[in-house]
Structures are given as structure tokens and as C-alpha cells.
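Q: What would this chain look like folded?
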Amino acid sequence: MQAHAPRISPHNDLYLAWQVLRREQPGLRARDAAEQLAVSEAELTASRLQTDALRLRPEWAALLPALGELGYIMALTRNQHCVHERKGYYRDVTVMASGQMGLVVSADIDLRLFLGGWASVFAIEEQTSRGTQRSIQVFDRQGTAVHKVFLTAESQLSAWEPLLERFRAAEQSPELGLQAPVAAPPVKADSDIDLAGLRSGWAALQDTHHFFALLQKHGVRRTQALRLAGEEWAEALAPSELPKMLEAAAASEVPIMVFVGNQHCIQIHSGPVRNLRWLDSWFNVMDAEFNLHLQSSAVRQLWRVRKPSTDGVITSLEAFDADGELILQLFGVRKPGVAEREDWRALAHSAASLPR
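A: My prediction, written as C-alpha cells:
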């Protein structure tokens, strides 16, 4: 990627304003800078065109498998309150014929991709105090970051420029055509929910992946369903139990699955967690191949959830923010066709539930 002198334009004004902000606040992340400048992160990224960013064609069925050519990378997916970083290789990539869904199911990089919401993609080559940082960054139609892939010291740097040339967009335009967020459907009153139908449908689940369809069928929000399901299926826990559960998993070496996602991408770590640290109100996992950064103060609800399946009951811990948005899920490591680990089940049930 060749850098050029920035052209004079409104987008250039945004870029210059960002540089002023960075000088005032060294180490400020792009997401936070965008918020302070009252723009989306995608708009801030687009302002870097002709400087250290290149717009790529959003051809997901070809681009995503090509990321495997970069070798050992770090994949990052986040929501407002939690960041999930996993190192490994982009392998076993599948994009459905419809182009709306995708999967990455390698042992290390494990993703569920809802591609219908993916809109723009950029390659960035940024000079930092640690050297050149190279990344591929994907944004949705609202300009929010969906998923990012960063090269590491062990990546195949020789594959970077050829990949960029192959997917370079013909028009290096900063125009994004952003759309307003889709309004969430109104929340039904509890009295309007078919409670018997919800509970019977829950009891009849044969796959945890069918849970979302159950919520849609009854027009019920996730936290509302947990509250209405009954203690057989869901119990509220104190939010402070979440870091304690992660600490207990580390101490007892119980391998867990950590799901973190946003509307368009879910990223999963499977394995142990070991190096846990607090930094103010942030709770962090700082392992060699997996990092997690959780704003613990944002967790307003924590639920122990049980869902039946053909492999037996599957137990999860689910954390939500003040708006009822899912922040993080924990499961015991398992494969389809295998029953839940007893050590995980015991750990998940070790915390006392809150009185109803």
C-alpha cells in the first residue's frame, strides 16, 4: 500500500481533526475518537483514504477465504462493552450460497458471520510506536465496526500486498451511504406473551441454535424470556458472579467457550483461560492466544440458562447490559453429539441464584 499526501476535502478535515485529537490524547482508539468527533468509526476510517487506508471490494465469498493466506493473525470482534481477541489461522471458511451467512470453524478462529449486515471493508497500514500495524476492518451500514483482522509478527507479510491488489476497490471513495439503525420492534407486555407456549417450546428444544427462532416465534426479548421461563430453565445471578466464574474456571482448569458478538458477527474462544487481571472496572483475560476485555460495570443482568438438546441439557451463563443487549455467553467446551462436561455444569451451578 502506497501512502499519498492527503487531498483537501471535508473528509480530509475529519482526518486532520482526528490527528489533533490524537496529539491531545495519545493512545486514543479509533472507536473512541469517532465518538468524540460525533462520526461513525467507518467515516473516520474512510477519512484515511489516500493516507494509510485502502478501500477493498466487499466480496465476502472470495475475501474471507483469502484471509487464510495471511497466516497467523489476530481476529477481533466486539460489542459496546466487551472485546474478544483470538489469534490463529483463518481456515475452513464457508459462505452460504445466499451470501447472507458465513462460518469460520477452525480450531482457533471460530466465527458465525451474518453477512447481510456487512457493508464496507478497508485495509489499514498504520505507523505506531511498535512499528507498522496492518489490519482488515469491516463495518456495517451504520458505520459500526463488525470484525477486524490484524497481522501479527508471525503473519505471512508477503501475502499482504497481493491480497490488497486483488481486492482493491476501483473507486477509492470515502462515501459510505450510511443508513439509520433499524428500529427495534416494540417490547410486548408480559401479559401479551403466550407463556404456556413459550415454556412448552423451550422444553421441546432439541438444539440450542433453535432458541433464537423460539424467541422470534413468541415475539419476546431474550431477557424477558429468561424472566418468564421459570427456574427450571433460567435463574438470575448477581452480576458480580461473572468474573468469579471465570476465575474459578481458571483455577480449576475447566475449558470453556467464550462467545462475544455484535449484530453481525459472533466470535468464540474454546479452551482454558489462565491469566486473569483487573484494570479498574475492566476484567481481562490476557493469555497468549486469547484476550478478553470486559467492562464489568456494564453487566446489569447475569443469568444461568439451561436449554434442552438431543445431547442433554446445555448450561450457559449469559450477561446483559442495561438495555437488555447480550454482552457475553459462557459454555463448557463441547462438540455436537457430546454431553455437557460435568465439571462445567458444577461450576455454573456453584453460584447461588437471586431470589425472585
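Residues 2-9 have pLDDT under 50 and may be disordered.
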